């Protein structure tokens, strides 16, 4: 019996368990890409003269270069610049979740022990997880390529585009195989892989930002940091222009090395443990833990710290860019003009960055509030509600933590931008005043999304996780970041709470929309509270 | 107040098809240890969750410590402690932190009692919950519950993962609580434990109370088993009224007798010149298996029934 005996059986088990999850991920991403490609194809067929200037906007603007690498004026290339980063992150997350689900999570839940007692080798679950994730990425590559071909793009470019996105998933399959060996919990393994994804994005973004622009302003050549990142390698394939194949070898090599590393690590540790030993803790609880909000704070402080580090990093980078934005000329200014008017280009830039941070923090709030559902479904709610804690107090503990955490994160982002921006521009105090206001004005929109998640958890507990993420994606895509460039009607865009956030500091903050958002939030919270009081708890049997 | 738990005609449905509790009656007097027995899936955990206000009753009357468990949940929970059947705790907190947290949330943690119980249950409070075995997680929940001095303890299969030593500690603690006048509802599958601790029991089957009373009450309703040797042949035994499951071998017989017929059967036996005789009251296990038996027989399986008759 070798270390890989039983791998194919485990592959079949994993495919059976993922028969809905993985098709949903791959089809969803392909549908999204096909739809946006068709939209850009349609708009540039009507106005072909706009393609070159629009490409120049994203090439000349370092803030836009962060999103991707541009190679010449093509509809496919333009689409990949708009969608590429989102898709790359999603492909990475799909792969990380799949690998962790079939390795570390099944160990944490004790399933691995049952399987390991059968005729199954030590490395079979790593092998099976990697095979399943690779298969998903292969299907993803095909579906993405097909989506672009159907939307009228050249065949070779479409296929290269699909493969380039899937290769990010391939590289992070290897990353997750290693983090699953290092951390002893699902949360830890996913968190480490997510941190690697964040670093990978920062490297690619920095490389593109610092890259050189050709004389026609239609092509960017990345600086060296981009070459240290799987997202960077994916972009270097330059679909619809150079159609390079060899960067794919870098991702394949990374997968091979990382998977071998994971197998090596797995051979040196006990089942159920990570490489890092379990530490002992306090015999007595600190007073700060002894309340529902204290408990929630304790449960999520690690995640909050990770988000804080990420947002401070992005804040410093985006803040430092302020000087270059201030010096922008020509076509590149139009995008910001739409955000805050020509008069205050820098203000518009800051407003747009604050909104990006607001979206990210909303995602944090949603992950936190969905723990309410997990507490209930996994049964950790039972001992708490068996004590003198009311349902309302438990809900409030989460709401307070979500609000405080969100405020902390947007403020940290603002302060980081102020520090870096103040260094390049001077006049730190007035910048601080402007950006703190712009940060706080994000909170009502975030709170509306949070309250909607609470209502879902209380009204439809079984469906709440999926529906909440659908809601987040919907709010982002019909919101101000994507809605206008997708040409969506204004009534649809009005459905996103983010469409109502004042574009501070470019535009002064008007109380109307803020009050309206707070009112909607209160109404949703009221629905959640009423539903919560009426229903049975959905505890495990 | 003399009644800790008064449940009558309790109905709980899950969806339109599944009736988990079907007019259940349960009465626990103040100061008694009440055993709550029944096969898996009979509705024990559902009953306890209704008593805690986590599930809402669809019909019937439920009173806990004189209040309505759905409406007055928080006020009532200050006066009770609960050990869930499946102990789900936060994997990254230590056992000691969980004990303090749950006690504080209940509002009645007694610090010196906590120390004493950690010692008695030989619990290492510095380990993370995820590093504990099932039995040790259960010990965390037990110490957390018993560290609070409350009127009522609801214990849902609290000892299913404990070793015999810890089981003995658990029984000692429950005896002390009883001597102290506390009320305890103990759902359990460990019959020796129930027999040792409980004043009264309720046997629940398919969401209904099948029987309720003291052991003596229940035994009076049940047959006595007899093993007898006589000088004269025992063949007539099978024809006497009230005799069941008789196995006769010349002057040796084993059978069971209905409670009302025991005296008359003894009279007949004397006529056959008894040489030796053993009678034994039914054990709790037999009482219990009789109800399981009916349950299983209803589902069309016979294996356990054979075993019961062979006893």
Explain this structure to me?
- Chain B: Residues 5-231 form the ABC transporter domain.
- Chain B: InterPro entries: AAA+_ATPase (IPR003593), ABC_transporter-like_ATP-bd (IPR003439), ABC_transporter-like_CS (IPR017871), ABC_transporter_ATP-binding (IPR050763), DrrA1/2-like_C (IPR025302), P-loop_NTPase (IPR027417).
- Chain B: It is found in: Cell membrane.
- Chain B: This is ATP-binding cassette domain-containing protein.
- Chain B: Belongs to the ABC transporter superfamily.
- The complex is a heterodimer of chains A (541) and B (311).
- Chain A has a two-stranded antiparallel ribbon.
- Chain A is mostly helical.
- Chain A folds into two domains: 1-275, no CATH class; 288-541, no CATH class.
- The model of chain A has no long low-confidence stretch (mean pLDDT 90).
- In chain A, helix 9 (155-182) runs parallel beside helix 12 and helix 16 packs parallel to helix 20 (443-459).
- Chain A has helices spanning 7-17, 21-46, 51-60, 62-65, 75-102, 104-108, 111-116, 124-150, 155-182, 186-209, 230-236, 247-266, 292-320, 322-326, 333-340, 345-378, 381-385, 391-425, 428-440, 443-459, 464-477, 490-493, 511-534, and strands at residues 212-213, 220-221.
- Chain A is built from 23 helices and two strands.
- In chain B, helix 3 packs parallel to helix 5 (134-146).
- Chain B is 35% helix and 28% strand.
- Chain B is elongated, with a radius of gyration of 23 Å.
- Chain B has eleven helices and 13 strands.
- Mean pLDDT of chain B is 87; it is low at 298-311.
- Chain B folds into two domains: 3-214, Rossmann fold (3-Layer(aba) Sandwich); 223-280, Alpha-Beta Plaits, CATH 3.30.70.
- In chain B, a hairpin with a 2-residue loop joins strand 8 and strand 9 (208-213).
- The longest helix of chain B is centred in the middle third of the chain and has 16 residues, at 164-179.
- Chain B has helices spanning 44-51, 73-77, 95-106, 111-120, 134-146, 164-179, 191-197, 215-220, 262-271, 284-298, 303-310, and strands spanning 3-14, 18-29, 33-37, 59-64, 80-83, 152-156, 183-187, 200-205, 208-213, 224-230, 243-249, 252-257, 274-280.
- Classes of the chains: A mainly alpha (541), B alpha/beta (311).
- At the A-B interface, helix 13 and helix 17 of A face helix 2 and helix 3 of B.
